Amino acid sequence: MTRVFQSLDGLLRHGFDTVIDVRSPAEFEEDHVPGAISLPVLDNEERARVGTIYKQESPFRARKIGAALVFRNAATHIAGPLAHHEGGWRPLVYCWRGGQRSGSFAWMLQQIGWRAEMVEGGYRTYRRLVTRALYDEALPFRMVQLGGYTGTAKTALLGRLAARDVQVLDLEGMARHRGSLLGDMPGGQPSQKAFETALVGALHGLDPARPIIVEAESSKIGQILLPPSLWEAMKQAPWIEIAAPLEARAAYLDAAYDDVLSDREELKRKLAPLRYHRGHALVEHWETLIGAGERLALCRSLAADHYDPAYDKSMRAMTPTVLQSFRTETLGPAGLDDLADRIAAALQTMSI
Q1: N or C: which end of the chain has fewer CB atoms below 10 A?
Q2: What's the pLDDT score for residue 205?
Q3: 123-127: which pairs have CB atoms within 8 A and are 24 or more residues apart?
Q4: Among 56, 57, 54, residue whose Cα is nearest residue 69
Q5: What does the alpha-carbon distance between residue 205 and residue 193 come to, in Å, rounded to a whole number?
Q6: Could you tell me how many helices (H) and strands (E) the chain has, helices first?
């Protein structure tokens, strides 16, 4: 039995007990339906082997070998991770396009007595719905961008605002990148598709009647491109701006970028391209500070001599509507808590 989903909301509210992705681990790793578990009926090597036989030898032989592998792997899943389920369990199964892999696995589950269904069109249906939501239609949300110079702890503020029942969207968290030249994070970034899955998952739980705070970004975070519907909503959004003294920002950057600042040679490599934008003398000054272990001085100069001029230039080009500016003298926990309290209170009275 197949289940047809006409909308992304319908798929995300599927109502099944478990969503099972039977595609290969590599396919699952690239992206998958939110909340799905991976129970591949063909692993990466098996999928490649069957595909090669299909193209180079015989479709019939490929299907025969593939069927044996699918049922063998399915039996392992049933005897292992699925063994504890009772008779009323309702799983939703999908593969790449709703074909033989999900059909075979769903059929086996049904024969046991479980109320399994498969997604009509498989993962491709899900991606079509995601693409429609993020590329073809306008988002039904009102955004407010959280702006301010680099080092004003905007990302840290998002979590505090969320704890105060403010709707937030942490794009850098989803992109696993701090959104700057030195923004790489351990583990690297997700695929573009996985980022978009995280995005629709986050948006799905938000109330369109209330504003959403999103950190001011460019249209690209590391290697991740912001989808058109989100970028359009952000471009039209008014701003809240954060201000803090340079010394406080330098201290915050020193702590927030500890992993980057600790690798001196890699840090020099990342800063080297700025010779063509900020001049050889400034980059050589940074290299001297790096060699001397003067991290605070380096953060102070990076902010004042690189990030701040770039921010000022961007603001002159965009001229956003700034609803209100908030200043804090400290960016420690107490200062950020106070800042979050003030922003949350102000949002209650703002006309957005």
Answers
A1: N
A2: 86
A3: 123/21, 123/23, 123/27, 123/31, 123/32, 123/33, 123/94, 123/95, 123/96, 123/97, 124/96, 124/97, 124/98, 125/5, 125/11, 125/94, 125/98, 126/5, 126/11, 126/33, 126/94, 127/31, 127/193
A4: 54
A5: 19
A6: 18, 12
- Spatial separation of the C-alpha atoms in residues 95 and 97, rounded to whole Å: 6
**Token pair 């000022």 in the structure block, residue:** 312
Concatenated DSSP letters for 22-52?
Answer: -S-HHHHHH---TT-EE--SS-HHHHHHHHH
Query: Which comes out higher in pLDDT, residue 191 or 1?
Result: 191
Cβ pair 343, 326 in contact under 8 A: yes
Tell me the pLDDT band of 14, cut-offs 50, 70 and 90: very high
- pLDDT at residue 66, rounded to an integer: 87
Which residues are tagged catalytic?
A: 95
Q: Residue 323 in contact with residue 352, Cβ under 8 Å?
A: yes
* Angle (CA) 44 49 51, round 5°: 95
Helices 122-131 and 192-204: crossing angle, nearest 10°? 70
Pair of tokens at residue 61 = 């032989």
Residue type at position 195: F
pLDDT score at 42: 95
Residue 179: band (very low, low, confident or very high) from pLDDT cuts 50, 70, 90: confident
Which of 245, 188, 197, 250 minimizes the C-alpha distance to 221?
Answer: 188
Percentages (nearest 5) of helix, strand, coil residues in the chain: 55, 15, 35
> What is the C-alpha to C-alpha distance for residues 106 and 116, in angstroms, rounded to an integer?
6
pLDDT score, position 339: 97
Nearest to 178 by CA among 107, 117, 253, 105: 253
Phi and psi angles of residue 265, each rounded to the nearest 5 degrees, phi first: -70, -40
